[in-house]
Fold each of these.
Amino acid sequence: MEHHHPHHHEVANYNRAFAIGISLNVVFVIVEASYGILAGSMALLADAGHNLSDVVSLILAWGASILAKKAATAKRTYGFRKATVMAALISSIMLFIALGAIAWESINRMLNPQPVEGMTVIVVASIGVVINTITALLFFKGQKQDLNIRGAFLHMAADAAVSLGVVIAGLFILFKGWLWIDPLVSLLIVAIILVGTWRLFRESFNYAMDAVPENIDLQKIQQYLLDLEQVDSLHDLHVWPLSTSETALTAHLVVKNNPLDNAFLAQLQHDLHDHFDIEHVTIQLESIEQASLCLLGSNNECHR
């Protein structure tokens, strides 16, 4: 038994978000890098580099979302759903690299303070806060259900936080002349963003390795199946992510009365979908006699 719930609406929902986010950030990267050079601000240049890496990540995430909806082929029977997982993993790695670069530059600036045009830094970074916050909000709703969208949200939220830190640093530089505050604020922001980035990396790596998604309780699923009146026992229960938003399950159920009617199977797939968010269900039914032969190793057709 196999059941599938299509999610073609997700691409339509986020096509606009990706298009707006990429367009706004490409323009801002050019503006920020230009003014960073004119103002002699390494903070603006570092932020522009960070924003550029995030533009690349947005493009990756968008492309993966589109690829995930492509039809399956004879060679790729699950289609390209895993593209969103790979995009989230690459996105997290790029975030690590960007954070490392910012931390490195911040330490260098603490050791070697340089004069900066505070007002230019404040104005340009403030624009960055607005643009990146707007872009992050475009992905806020979807980031709770889709790891790929969460990667895009984290990148934009990180950009907004970094730009805000640059604004604060610019204010202190302008009114207090504290050149050291710029790198200090940057290091604090890096530490905060690192927590979310590590979680994104850990989850996307687990998804790539077909681990049970964190929102799925395998023990509860097992108990639900065993509590069914028609089920005597079960084996070969597997749950894994097909993509960042779809989960699959396969299991062998040893049933007391075989064959069972379609109503049992329909209720089973309905419950697994509604209560456990499992969208692709494949169940193999076995009689108690067949299961006994499997345990004795006398049935070559048993799959364990």
Amino acid sequence: MITINHVNLTINERKILNDINLEIKKGETLVILGASGSGKSTVLKLMTGLIKPCSGSIFIKGVKADSLNEFEWNKLRKFMGMVFQYSALFDSMTVKENVAFGLRQHTKLKEQEIERIVKEKLNMVGLEGTEELYPSELSGGMKKRVSLARAVAMEPEIILYDEPTSGLDPIRSTDISLVIKNTQKIMKTTSVVVTHDLKSAEMIADRVAFLYKGTFIKIGTMKELMQSDDSRVRQFMHGLPSVNVNSMFEESKI
């Protein structure tokens, strides 16, 4: 469904991505794990055409996406849904209007059909009865769900999630992870999830790609990453400190 071959990206003379390779299979949920600043969200921007690689190629649904112009990208994006880190809801619109936004912009469906779809998707994410509320009246977890309902309203084949559990408490984070898992099960989409939330990744991932300083250094199941001998992977997966704490205390006594 999505293939990235030998992609490099440099911005302002800074190497962001270094010869990355990734193949995402149709219908799977692939989680991109990595520390803050490792380049995870940049990979999503490549997949949506917001930035172009300096070299290498990106194929989406068999289309060589890195060579498309903006008009061609817009056609390809209709097969994709995006759940943003901070939800990106329109404050002046109700929940119903937010979810219906793409349908009204990109389809010629009758209003009755749009309202049916909106209700169906809100029910799917557990937000029935919230149609007339505004974003300011919603909790952080509810906003994430509205964002997901909007993303799936046009029945995309691919859904991209940017830090879907960011800013949520452990209970709400688990709720969102379950909603993501249920959505994939119902819609059979190909899902790419960027996160540093290990518990969420364990709940939803078919496979995990670990990004370290702009390079995928390990791709496999969650179990395989947890058992990895690579010190860089182990440090992240097991929450090991980046410095020797005992030596720091010893130095402070000098």
Amino acid sequence: MKQSLYNIYHLGKKELQTLFRDKIMLSLIVYSFSFAIYIGATSASTDIHHASIAFVDEDRSTLSERIISAFYKPRFNPPQLITFDEVNPTMDSGYYTFVVVIPSGFEKKILKQEATEIQLNIDATRMTQAGVGSGYIQAIINQEIANSLNQKEISPINLVTTFKYNPNLISTWFGGINEIISNIMMLSILLSGAALMREREHGTIEHLLVMPLNAAQIMLSKIWSMGLVILIGVTFSLLF
């Protein structure tokens, strides 16, 4: 047993020494746990930041002003007031991502609890902002309408929701963890396969086969050495 562990240790040590001589593989490992994590997390972000929005306020009521003032940074840029004739030109030029049209008599119909509609125009070429932003806009408008009508039920319990570990629900944090997990899976396969290919390329795999070693020892030596490299890379990525 002691001799077996000794063989596994020294074979793994040899794998590490061989890996450190492979500059291309080292560069790939460094990239996978540094720049690749950042690029993967930020490129897949679903957060809304400074989305451009405009309103066509044909109602000019207190409720419409409350709705317009409910949109502010950092998710939305300060809302701009435009006319209905400016909707298509500004959307075609990409000046606004969202244009909300509040019709005339909107507040009166809401107070009478009559059916009414708000038109939301979306520039769907900005796919992430279009999908997520439309949900935000709908929720904000519904919340302002409910507040204006005092329809919010008063609960004897004040429920306070706290998000641990990611209190601001920043999607890049979640995306970074996903990217780390993906790179761990990729490198776990790649490093072990590359180690075996190096053995065949250098002709040392025949030496291993004639040595007093079994397949389990060879396999375990590659697993612990490459696993150590991945563990160091993950630690570096999480800390820095």
Amino acid sequence: MEHLAELLAREVVSVGPSETVAVVARLMKEKHIGCVLVTEAGRAVGIFSERDLLNRVVCPQEDVRTAPVSRFMTPDPVTVEASEPLARVFDILSRRRFRHVPITRDGRPVGMVSLSDFSGILKEVFEEDRYAQYFVDYWTASQGRK
């Protein structure tokens, strides 16, 4: 797996900017996700995450029943094109200290990648390396080489 497009099996969970924080928080809980994309006319206008919920809503004691998510979202989110190499995306996540970044194709949201997605990718890579090393060792031993 080298490019972001290979991670696009998941649906994009998005809401409109006028959706209430209560509805968005419930949706995040039901879908077991850490953020939603806020879209308008098919374009990403913001991202609303667990951090936004905690720092911008819960701690200041805002009324989640009536407050629109647009008031608390992070506007103009950094996005990455689906054709981006995974290494570049991981660099963006780590340098900017993001947990999630929306994936786009021609500027339109098509997915979301999270830092936890990379833990699964790294696990696969390490397992592949371990098996590759096992076969190299086996082949070398079978050829009478050390």
